[in-house]
Design brief:
Elements lengths: L1 E11 L8 E8 L2 E6 L5 E7 L4 E4 L1 E3 L7 H4 L4 H4 L3 E6 L14 H7 L15 H10 L5 E7 H8 L9 H16 L4 E5 L10 H13 L3 E5 L7 H17 L5 E4 L13 H13 L3 E6 L4 E5 L6 H4 L3 H9 L1 H15 L15 E6 L12 H8 L3 H11 L4 E6 L3 H9 L3 E3 L20 H16 L5 H8 L1 H6 L16 E4 L20 E6 L2 E5 L2 E2 L11
Parallel strand pairs: 1-4, 1-5, 6-7, 7-8, 8-9, 9-10, 10-11, 11-12, 12-16
Antiparallel strand pairs: 1-2, 2-3, 5-17, 13-15, 14-15, 17-18, 18-19, 19-20
């Protein structure tokens, strides 16, 4: 028998967490055909993998590449770090379903993911997934349906509690998205429109997901002073559904404790999740290997500020009375009367990474405290005017986490790796700004810095967190492991040199040490360079 490709003499980690074996792996078509000694076998191509790790392709369980994959099919920053599957639609920020009359407002509400000039030609979930497959991405995509478009479809953009009738309509929209191919449901309860949802709305949608055995990921309401209450809200929903005989597949997004004043809550948050798991709830979390977060600056505002859409937000930002309210909140925070900073974090911890206008390009790379000083205004006037000038589209990096806590979560048996990033490229439109380096470096940083250099865990455990753990959460039953008859998604890397190169000052840099990446049997990265292949598929379950 002649195979299409043999990976010869590699150190094969099958993704299960088991110890590796030095052996060969054969691929036929899009499938792993055999693992073992292939010394007598014939193949159209043989790659010498001696001294290299052969692993399942990495599954990025938390990605925002919903639009960038349509703009540049090559998925450069992801495929070159070994990612073969991205799970999109996260944090409640999604692009489908999208009624024609809602598209502009959805785009304005979800500016964090609008990083590529893509025309929204779709309305339904099925239409978007067809567009995505037609783009021929270099990675597989497991698409989540986001809560915000579902809410907009039924309620619009007001920050009002949903009526029982509206909740029922949202459940119907969700079911249709599942029927059309969405692999799960993603909430962004800290952002518009998700922050307006009350617990009964969330519970009803989670019930539909549980009935369909779908993954549910949640950016909880607060990752700072109200972290424990925010966790408790979702865990209580999981308990209620368990009493009904339904198992909620609950994933806590980018599990963290944000803000130095709140770091004392970190261990209790972990114990809360451990207790929920011990009760028999299906709970896990993802982590990115950085102490810096990233999102849109307007994500700090409560739901009433967003009510009515982006234009209403801009009007409120200009309102003198609202500015006075925020000035009083700032004074209360500075006096220690509240734990809630009105802009969420100290301004010397918030760095601007992207803006919309040419006039404010010099602000990129600066911290907000410096921008406030340059403007010669008080904090609230300076920040609110800046947001108005940018149509509320300002992306920021937040220096908010403790490295020791990040290490605990990376190491924790319930944790897995997700970038919370995008498929970017160091050329063209996708090279603009200073995005978080996690889009280029998450998996090499984890395996190089934390696993090899710091010895946080053994390589077999680490690879399991990047592969089979995520596949299991997403019900991807033929990926995430190196086994005969599984799909041939494979990454080959040098364990001695794998490392991230992207920094906050210069983020558009590919990592080192990734030698080969294979997607559905197609060699997509060869000797560190993209071959041009677009063999990715839209995955449904």
């Amino acid at each position: 028998m002649e195979f299409d490709l043999i990976l010869q003499s590699g150190t094969v980690y099958d993704g299960s967490g088991a110890k590796p074996n030095v052996t060969d792996l054969a691929i036929s078509g899009d499938t792993i055909a055999a693992i073992g000694d292939m010394s007598g076998a014939q193949a159209a191509q043989v790659l010498d993998c001696a001294g290299l790790v052969v692993s399942p392709g990495f599954i990025d369980i938390h990605s925002h590449s919903d639009l960038t994959l349509l703009y540049n099919y090559k998925a450069e920053s992801k495929i070159r770090q070994g990612v073969t599957t991205e799970c999109t639609g996260q944090c409640g920020l999604g692009v489908f379903p999208a009624r024609e009359e809602n598209k502009k407002s959805l785009q304005e509400t979800s500016t964090f993911i609008i990083t590529a000039p893509v025309e929204w030609t779709w309305q339904s979930t099925a239409e978007y997934l067809a567009c995505l497959q037609d783009a021929g991405p270099s990675v597989n995509v497991a698409p989540m349906v986001a809560h915000s478009p579902i809410r907009a479809d039924v309620i619009g953009f007001e920050a009002d509690p949903a009526t029982p009738e509206q909740i029922q309509q949202m459940c119907q929209v969700l079911q249709q998205s599942f029927d059309e191919g969405a692999v799960g449901l993603a909430f962004g309860l800290a952002y518009a429109l998700g922050s307006a949802a009350e617990t009964d709305e969330i519970e009803a949608l989670c019930r539909v997901a549980a009935q369909n055995n779908k993954h549910v990921s949640v950016h909880i309401r607060n990752e700072g002073p109200a972290l424990l209450d925010s966790l408790a809200e979702m865990i209580s929903i999981a308990r209620i559904l368990k009493q009904e005989g339904l198992l909620l597949r609950l994933q806590i997004d980018h599990f963290k404790c944000a803000g130095s004043r709140n770091w004392h809550l970190a261990d209790e948050a972990i114990r809360t999740v451990e207790q929920a798991k011990a009760e028999g709830l299906d709970i896990a979390f993802d982590v990115y290997p950085y102490t810096v977060a990233s999102r849109h600056l307007s994500g700090s505002f409560p739901s009433w500020m967003y009510s009515g859409g982006n234009q209403m937000l801009l009007q409120r930002l200009a309102d003198p009375e609202i500015r006075d309210q925020y000035r009083q909140q700032m004074a209360d925070w500075e006096a220690g009367k509240t734990d809630h900073h009105p802009l969420e974090f100290e301004l010397d911890r918030i760095m601007v990474v992207d803006v919309e206008t040419e006039q404010n390009q010099p602000a990129i790379g600066k911290f907000l405290d410096e921008i406030v000083r340059e403007r010669g205004q008080d904090i609230i006037d300076a920040v609110f005017d800046f947001l108005i000038e940018e149509n509320a589209h300002i992306n920021v990096a937040l220096y908010s986490m403790d490295d020791a806590d990040v290490e605990k979560r990376l190491k924790h048996p319930l944790g897995m790796i997700g970038s919370d990033g995008f498929s970017y490229a160091p050329y063209g439109e996708l090279s603009r700004g200073l995005p978080h380096p996690r889009s280029y470096g998450t998996f090499p940083r984890f395996l190089g810095h934390y696993v090899r250099d710091k010895g946080l865990m053994d390589m077999a455990t680490a690879i399991n967190k990047c592969t089979a753990r995520a596949a299991s959460r997403l019900n991807l039953n033929d990926r995430g492991l190196l086994k005969p008859d599984y799909k041939a998604d494979v990454v080959v890397f040098n364990p001695d040199t794998i490392i991230d190169k992207a920094t906050f000052e210069d983020p558009h840099q590919y990592p080192e040490g990734i030698m080969y990446v294979i997607v559905n049997g197609e060699l997509t990265v060869e000797n560190g360079e993209h071959t041009g292949a677009g063999a990715g598929r839209v995955l449904e379950n």
